[in-house]
Design a protein that fits this description.
The structure holds two protein chains of two kinds.
Chain A (H helix, E strand, L loop, with lengths): L1 E7 L2 E10 L4 H9 L7 E12 L1 H17 L1 E5 L3 H10 L1 H4 L4
Parallel strand pairs in A: 2-3, 3-4
Antiparallel strand pairs in A: 1-2
Chain B lengths: L7 E7 L2 H9 L4 E5 L2 E12 L2 E9 L5 H15 L1 E12 L13 E3 L2 E4 L3 E4 L6 E3 L2 E5 L2 E4 L5 H9 L7 E3 L2 E3 L7 H9 L7 E3 L2 H9 L7 E10 L10 H19 L4
Parallel strand pairs in B: 1-4, 1-5, 5-15, 6-12, 7-13, 13-14
Antiparallel strand pairs in B: 2-3, 3-4, 5-14, 6-15, 7-11, 8-10, 9-10
Helix pairs in contact in B: 1-6, 2-5, 3-6
Chain lengths: ~100, ~260
């Protein structure tokens, strides 16, 4: 999985490419932990994300929990495969998806 | 006298519609009815090492230990499963320093216990007091067979596992809990390392352990959908039901010995 982060002021955009699963989610979690201080708007771009597992969803929940205290979080460019997973797991109701 | 043989590899139990939806997501099920029984069963199969294995599922008519024991017993006697697995949602109750739990984390108990068994008395006679009401707990316990735990650990440590899994005691009671004081006073005061809270697990394990031979091996796989406090909501029930069924599937399809 490739993680591309762009920080503009206090807005962080995180574009993911590949598969977010039990192998790659620790990398994303660590990357977010080192980047989220002072961030008030977090945007995940899933345009090039092929798959997300429960391990990846857990990282999103963790990020959402943190952003609830310091700002907003949204997910953009969600493809059909990922959206199906979001719907089965209820994430389509939990997250802000645009 | 020879022991009767198992006739089904795995039986699953669920309770709520959300849990049922998660169960149906992972297999192609066919409904099955039995003459004289108003329960609807669902049957499916999966392949392991070139052998077709059988699955059956039953959804409880209502929450709680009474429905769980009755349905578990019917499932056992009608299908004779090797494993009786209850999937679904539970409250996460681990204290700080015991485990850091999140929504969707899986709790697999090594022991289940009925914390709601006891006697209501005056506060002066009680171990636990809620204002003018005292409670003397007479908790009862049922253990998951020890020989199954290495297989559960192997599944949770495998690279295929996508879930965070906690092994620890599951407290079972007759009421939904949305008050942290119940956890502190009635549950953690009795068993401080309790990791989960539900309303059926004790009955399912009891039914399996007290069935006639061949007894099924009971396994409870429930995921955290809330923390039994006043912030309790239904928002994470779908995710919790999903991870519970996902880990159960990994366990029975790849790690449990099926004979």
């Amino acid at each position: 999985m490739t993680i591309n982060k762009t920080l503009t002021g206090t807005e962080l955009a995180v574009a993911l490419e590949g598969r977010l699963d039990t192998t790659t989610s620790p990398e994303l979690e660590a990357s977010l932990n080192e980047s989220l201080d002072g961030v008030t708007a977090l945007t995940f771009d899933f345009a090039k994300l092929d798959y997300i597992s429960s391990a990846g969803l857990r990282v999103l929940l963790s990020a959402q929990k943190r952003m609830n205290k310091q700002g907003d979080m949204k997910v953009v460019n969600v493809g059909e495969t990922i959206m199906e997973i979001f719907e089965v797991t209820g994430f389509s109701d939990i997250l802000t998806i645009e | 006298m020879p022991r009767k043989k198992y006739r089904t590899d795995v039986a699953l139990l669920s309770v709520t519609n959300t849990e049922f939806a998660a169960v149906t997501h992972f297999h192609e099920w066919k409904a099955k009815t039995i003459d004289g029984d108003d329960q609807i069963y669902d049957v499916a199969s999966f392949e392991r090492d070139g052998v077709r294995r059988s699955l059956v599922h039953a959804k409880l008519g209502e929450m709680g230990m009474t429905a769980a024991a009755a349905t578990a017993m019917k499932l056992i006697y009608e299908f004779r499963p090797r494993y009786l697995i209850m999937v679904g949602i539970a409250a996460g109750v681990a204290m700080e320093g015991v485990a850091d739990q999140m929504y969707g984390d899986v709790v697999v108990p090594d022991v289940v216990w009925n914390y709601s068994a006891g006697k209501f008395v005056s506060p002066s006679e009680a171990d636990i007091a809620f204002g003018d009401v005292g409670f003397l707990p007479r908790s009862t316990y049922a253990a998951i067979p020890m020989e199954i735990l290495p297989h559960i650990r192997a599944a949770m440590e495998s690279e295929e596992n996508q879930c965070t899994v906690h092994i620890g005691p599951m407290a079972c009671g007759s009421s939904v809990v949305a008050n942290r004081k119940i956890l502190e006073k009635q549950i953690h005061s009795q068993l401080s390392n309790t990791a989960g809270l539900d309303m059926e697990s004790y009955a399912v394990v009891y039914a399996a352990n007290h069935a006639t031979e061949p007894k099924p091996i009971p396994i409870i796989i429930k995921s955290v959908c809330d923390f039994a406090d006043n912030e309790k909501s239904d928002d994470y029930q779908k995710f919790a039901a999903y991870t519970s069924c996902e880990f159960a599937k990994l366990l029975y399809e790849k790690y449990l010995p099926l004979g």
